[in-house]
Design a protein that fits this description.
single chain, Aspartate Aminotransferase, domain 1, binds 4'-deoxy-4'-aminopyridoxal-5'-phosphate, Aspartate Aminotransferase, domain 2, 36% helix, alpha/beta, 7-stranded mixed sheet, 4-stranded mixed sheet, globular, 429 residues
């Protein structure tokens, strides 16, 4: 059992000044269970009560090499000496864009921003301007950020499976008038998407998809479906936006697009590209991206901040030129095997989905086929397991929606101990 006295006392003070006592709704774990971090190193966190955790949330994905990676931090410090933001550009923007273009063939041109949300907002604006159509489609189970256009969800209760699912805003304050611009389609149903494009193709200018759903337990689309989406978008003049904010520079050098063998029209990156420093990018086809500046606005005071840009340059260099991603995938495999061994011994049905670097764990023989399946599945077991593991110092998300993230530091440093072996031991206890 963890001691949480100091976190609990801090929460009571913090909740008076910060809504829910935190800086993001997702960091609130309940009045008694919200805890605060003192520091991080490698693959581990320490909270303000001194509890240590092996971290598989990794800030929801940015930490790819490990916390406080000395190589990236040295680059960031060098960036700090250059300055911050200048309302002018630096040479390094091109160097980072060249690296992204080398790793991701679809990234013919690149623009930077600071968060995943901003990159997706930019992609959607560019797609609308290019296609001349304001409507957009989202594959169910996808998450694309905290802006109004992305905060819609299928109303499961009110939908019988026929016609277009009804959508409800995911948050108060999202203007209902925006409803007429958005459609959602179940993952893996190409016929339904084709039918939608046939009926509404004159209104729909963009489609947003995470082929590996980094925000829905890493449920992965069928390769045939992703290829069909690619073809249907081309056929109906819909700009295909592959949101690689979670998968980019994590599941492969070229992201989910490389794994699925497709090229997006536009794609978005953040998280792993800066190993935790705030930076994101929208990238894509030259003819589409070139409309930025030709009547289409893109900007931001902090875009391509010198510190983040230097960190991204070093992170991407490491991910591209070393075997870090292969190592991380190997760690993920090893962890899966270890956990699987324990579960098999106890005859507990289970399976893993996604990618070893971004894994979903399910307590069923076959994985859910999509968001609806996941909603309907019995994930109670996970809800019981997660708090137990957290109490044993293995930090995973309390519900199964967020995958397990792996970083290079989870087993790199002998002196820091092997997080993966420790996790399997904690899991078996
Ligand atoms: N798109 C995807 C696929 C994401 O996973 C996220 C964040 N979880 C976002 C967009 C939004 O990114 P941010 O939180 O940096 O705004």
């Amino acid at each position: 059992q963890r001691k949480l006295e100091r976190s609990r006392a801090h929460f009571r003070k913090a909740a008076k000044r910060l809504p829910l006592g935190v800086a993001s709704n997702f960091r609130y774990w309940g009045d008694e269970d919200t805890f605060y971090i003192a520091r991080a190193e490698g693959g581990r966190l320490t909270d303000i009560d001194g509890n240590g955790y092996i971290d598989y949330r990794l800030g929801y994905g940015p930490t790819i090499l490990g916390y406080c990676d000395p190589r990236v931090d040295a680059a960031a410090q060098e960036g700090m000496r250059i300055g911050s933001v200048f309302a002018l550009s630096t040479e390094r923007e091109l160097s980072v864009a060249e690296r992204i273009a080398k790793m991701v063939p679809a990234a013919e041109m690149v623009r930077f921003s600071c968060s995943g949300t901003e990159a997706v907002m930019a992609a959607l604006r560019v797609a609308r301007a290019y296609s001349g159509k304001d409507g957009y489609v989202v594959a169910e189970g996808g998450y694309h950020g905290v802006f109004d256009a992305a905060l819609w969800t299928t109303d499961m209760e009110g939908w019988a499976g026929e016609g277009d699912p009804d959508l409800v805003p995911y948050s108060g304050g999202v203007p209902r008038m925006l409803r007429s611009l958005v459609w959602q389609v179940p993952l893996n149903d190409a016929d339904r998407l084709e039918d939608l494009f046939k009926r509404q193709g004159d209104k729909i200018g963009a489609m947003l998809i995470e082929p590996i759903q980094g925000n829905c337990c890493a449920i992965s689309a069928d390769p045939d479906y992703v290829r069909a989406v690619r073809e249907l978008c081309t056929k109906h003049g819909v700009v295909l936006i592959v949101d690689e904010v979670k998968t980019g520079f994590r599941v492969a050098r070229g992201g989910a697009q490389e794994i699925y063998g497709i090229q997006a029209d536009l794609c978005t990156f953040a998280k792993a590209m800066g190993n935790g420093y705030p930076i994101s990018a929208v990238a894509g086809r030259r003819d589409i991206m070139s409309i930025i500046g030709r009547g289409v606005v893109h900007g931001g005071t902090y875009t391509a901040h010198a510190v983040s840009l230097a960190a991204a340059e070093k992170t991407l260099e490491i991910l591209d030129e070393t075997d870090a991603l292969e190592t991380i995938a190997g760690y993920g495999e090893r962890l899966r095997e270890g956990l699987s061994g324990v579960l098999k011994q106890r005859s507990i049905p289970h399976c893993f989905v996604g990618h070893p670097a971004l894994s979903g764990l399910f307590f069923s023989e076959t994985p859910p086929a999509g968001y609806r399946d996941w909603k309907a599945s019995d994930y109670l077991f996970y809800d019981t397991l997660a708090p137990l593991l957290v109490d044993r110092g293995v930090l995973i998300e309390p519900d199964s929606r967020e995958p397990w993230f792996i970083c290079e530091a989870h087993a790199r440093d002998k002196a820091a101990g092997d997080c993966l072996d420790e996790t399997v031991t904690a899991f078996a206890a």
